[in-house]
Amino acid sequence: VNRMVGQDVMMKFLRGRYVRPTQEERVFMFLDLKGSTTIAEKLGPTYYRLLNDFFHDLSQPVMMTRAEIYQYVGDEVVLTWELERGMRDANCVRVFSLINEAVAARAEQYQQEYGVTPEYKAGVHCGPVISAQIGDIKREIVYNGDVVNTTSRIQEMCGDLGVDLLVSGDVMRRLNLPATYDADDLGPTEIRGKEQHVELFSVRPT
């Protein structure tokens, strides 16, 4: 049941944690497949098998870093952590490396079955959200706040800047980044839909 509804989500329902709207600090990662439109046109309905295999490969990294899968939106997956949990052991960055390892381990199988190995980009940001439980016959926990939209916009900037992983300055100031990563300070960057520029860092394993 935990795997079906999301890691730790069942306990939140049972405890009634979000029956009343709650303000909390969370970390979000928006992770999106590159070139998905072209791949979908090439593979047709088989594309959804590829997508499902890719999402399946995310499972172990997600569980290892104690992330929650908030949403699947087409070819995009949204991960979230409570702030402390996301910063602990650099989980919100380490998950990207673990996904890289999981996909690389199955690269040959991807090529044999689909003729392509998934490539992806991700944006990471943190901040306050209002968390609430909604629905009756189908219940969900939803997160509302500027941080969610901003994280999505940061992920979109990966393509413009030619990088795979962008992390906001708000995250970097709270994060004890391991020595196994390099971070390039890209400075304040204009983000679509944001009046104020957002400080961004390009992060990658050394």
Can you give me a brief rundown of this structure?
It is built from 9 helices and 8 strands.
N- to C-terminal separation? 37 Å
Mean pLDDT: 89
Radius of gyration: 17 Å
How much of the sequence is in beta strands?
Answer: 25-35%
Q: Name the poorly predicted regions.
A: none
**Shape, per Cα inertia axes:** globular
Largest sheet features: 8 strands, mixed
- Count of helical regions: 9
Strand-pairing-aware structural class? alpha+beta
Q: How many extended strands?
A: 8
Q: What is the helix/strand order?
A: HHEHHEEHHHEEHEHEE
Helix content: 40-55%
Describe the structure.
The protein is α+β, with helices and mostly antiparallel strands. It is built from nine helices and eight strands. It has helices at 2-5, 9-15, 36-43, 47-64, 83-87, 91-105, 107-114, 146-161, 169-174; strands at residues 22-33, 68-73, 76-82, 120-134, 140-144, 165-168, 181-189, 198-205. Strands 1, 2, 3, 4, 5, 6, 7 and 8 form an eight-stranded mixed β-sheet that branches. α4 crosses α6 (91-105). The longest helix is centred in the N-terminal third of the chain and has 18 residues, at 47-64. It is globular, with a radius of gyration of 17 Å. The mean pLDDT is 89.
